[in-house]
Design a protein that fits this description.
Blueprint lengths: L6 H11 L7 H16 L14 E10 L10 E8 L2 E9 L7 H26 L3 E7 L2 H10 L19
Protein name: RNA-directed DNA polymerase
Organism: Strongyloides venezuelensis (Threadworm)
Length: 167
């Protein structure tokens, strides 16, 4: 945002960005003022080229299960799109040890859901009606979450790590 923007927005954004690791209440109010400035001044700074009546947030999540000859931490990967435009990409080692592919995929899906919900908060400033899509390639995980909200016998070990959200 700050690279292709007007100098006043760049200055304000860079001023609060250096406190992102340890934000205080007055910095969040400054961030809110910047967002409202962008919302009510469409002639200004952000250029979103693809036009759409509704925003569509979509995250695709996947995990690669770590085999026993490694440090047992699986790899999470995720991409997020806003109206089919990539805005976030992540590949990292999971912080928790997963004992199965199911658990590794569940950790990845929880992180993707968290990212999607945080992004939705900011998109609501611009367009309150936004559609959310969360995709995974693990059919067993999808069926398990669909039928019993993630509390099957396979996922009892990760109840603490699972965040249940009503979308």
């Amino acid at each position: 945002m700050t690279l292709n923007s007007k100098p006043d927005v760049s200055f304000a954004t860079n001023r609060i960005a250096k406190y992102a690791a340890n934000p205080k209440l007055n910095y969040s109010s400054e961030l809110t003022r910047i967002i409202f400035y962008l919302k009510y001044r469409p002639d200004g700074t952000l250029k979103y080229i693809k036009r759409s009546k509704n925003f569509k947030l979509e995250c695709l999540s996947d995990a690669s299960f770590a085999h026993s000859n490694t440090d047992l931490r699986s790899i999470t990967s995720m991409v997020c799109y806003l109206n089919n435009n990539l805005f976030y990409r992540l590949t990292k080692r999971q912080t928790k040890v997963a004992r199965s592919t199911f658990i590794a995929e569940l950790f990845s899906l929880v992180y993707s859901t968290d990212t999607l919900m945080h992004t939705r908060k900011f998109v609501k400033f611009f367009k309150p009606e936004s559609k959310l899509f969360l995709c995974t390639d693990n059919i067993l995980l999808f069926i398990s979450l669909k039928h019993d909200a993630g509390y099957s016998s396979k996922s009892k070990a990760v109840d603490i790590d699972f965040i249940y959200l009503n979308l």
